[in-house]
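Reopening this ticket.

The earlier resolution said the output was attached, but the attachment link was broken on my side. Pasting everything inline this time so it's all in one place.
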Amino acid sequence: MDSFLSQEEIDALLNQGPAPAQPNAEPEQLPPQAADALGEIGNMAMGSAATALSQILGQRVVITTPKVRTCTQSELYASFQVPYVVVQVNFTHGLTGINLFILETHDAMVIADLMMGGSGKDLEGPPNEIQLSAIGEAMNQMMGSAATAMSTIFNRAVKISPPEVQLVDFQSPDFTSPLNGEEAIVVVAFDLEVGSIIKSKLMQVMPIRVAREQTDLLLGGSQAQASGAASPEVAVGEEAITVGNLPEPANGGNSAGAHGGPQAATPKNLDLILDVPLKVSVVLGKSQRPIRDVLNLGPGSILELDKQADDPVQVLVNGTLIAEGEVVVINENFGVRLTSILSREERLCNLRR
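Inline output:
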């Protein structure tokens, strides 16, 4: 009988209750070097995605200057006061986890309208099912190109599931997050430009464990888990980071890296991207036609281009002009003899855009 609790002991246990939660607890943070590395991964992956989108839309597309920050899901969702288009992409091979891509509704409608031969102007109302389907196809092409770039970066095959697209009202009582619990999340915000029509933001959202998996693969595992306080937002742009290297300290300093530690600890250099494939295209000329004309094309149809017969052809790398040349025939194969090449500085500047 001595092993039984007394009534007083039972009452004390019932009245005690669970310990109150800490509402203002800081979310788990990525170390600074891991945040920088994640921005560099995003820069290269979304650069390939921008090229794919540019080819689909027939417009110059730039996705660059990623800014990385860590927060909670509730903090992020509270910042969205109007519905947004959310694209969910799951890694199925090479990496694990969910990625969410969040796009302003009007921007999504413009992209869909351009895909269907429209002007991208004077659009009203929420996107319909056809427009959402068009956005899904655009994101499928973009993320396929991004996955290919990531395969090269990580030296392993990376595959994704078909994107799932929906219009989401984050303030609706019916909204349920596709991410689990209150795990800390990493938000990578990119500048998005489409011609002169869109100048906006594209957000990539992932659980912090998914971000760690990527940075561990890039940094070799040790650097991504190094201790140290992470800054709330790290900008990784043309001036903030050089290709393949973490940024130098802003105050000059000695040979230490961007956030302390010896320079020798920098895990990768330019060799990191020397094997990244770039798409080389030769443009004989261009022509814009509505969908109805394209559907009527058949054998023997002639398309008039915007170039004269003796005009030089353009040589593009990832959609960026680097040279001009003339078409030649070598051993029954077509080739291009380069006649004019942009300077090294111009080519580097163009490739960074």
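Reporter confirms the inline version is readable. The mean pLDDT is 77. The chain has eight helices and twelve strands.
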